[in-house]
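Might I ask for a little of your time on a matter of protein folding? Here, with my thanks, is the record as I have it:
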Amino acid sequence: MKGSFNVNTSPSLTFAKLNMNGDNVGIDTGKLNRDNVRQVITGGGITESDERIVIPLPKTDEDRIFELAEPAEKVMRLTEDASIILEFCGESAIQRVIRVASKKTVNVIEVTKGCGGDQALCSTRYILEEGSRLKLIRIQILDKGTLYIDDLKAVLEKDSYLEVVRIDLGSHRSYIGSHVLLDGKNAEYKAHGDYLLNGDQRLDINMIADHIAPDTVSDMRYDGVLIDSASKLFRGTLDFKSGCKGAKGSENEEVILLSEDVINQSLPIILCGEEDVEGNHGASVGKISDEIIYYLATRGFDEESATKLIIRSKFNTAVSQIYDEKIRGDLTRRIEEVLK
């Protein structure tokens, strides 16, 4: 079934002429075949079940896409570290629900790679039970001819902590959506993404942190580099719901522009239904400063070498957190291919 869907829709609309409220994409769900993606999950403390999980959020077009695609849904409960490799060999959709057991500390690394054909879709739901802690590293290195939709939703119960580290290098057009409900008192959410785009790659980001319970904390950040005619749109929303007294949230980004033809758009949003809260946003967008280039020139670097050094350094922090040597090597090679 072919359809047109609105994805990454902003929870608070702005002027339509700015074309920043969301994007309309054509998806042929009839071409999606669940056998076109191989899912390899490794690690201890994994329990699978047929439990039906419902996240308390309004239905979106992303949800409708997955309903039409009818992907196999895998429900898991984690008590130890895990690794999830998704390798696409054609057009497909995949869906997972992952619970982190109460008072457990878990590290998860997810890698999405391969050739997804025209469209590759991934839906993940995380539920952090009371007092649990999850560090989630998500890496996307799909073939650069692919349309990719990544829909992440999470519920954080009391005293839980979620840290998400993202690295996006692949696909032609990527729609990265995340909606996190800070549903329990003292829940904390931290997210940091990095991207490196060249050619005519397009990255559309829609991050939402819903502060529902008191004394919750969120910190969202997405940094990256745009080269050639690449483009990026960042929507970040802090939504302080009535009753989240003492909540704090921030959203920031730093974008390096290395061509006159790149397009960068930013839409920070703070919604406030509670008085005793703190919300902040900021952005740094532009070329690498002449002072930094001059400083490196005095140490023997020409401008091109200095620029590449700075870009590599931006990714070092994220890449160094990846404990799998092969994945770390794959990422380093992809970055070097762009910087040739």
About this structure: The first helix runs from residue 61 to 69. Residues 288-340 form one domain. The chain has four helices and 20 strands.
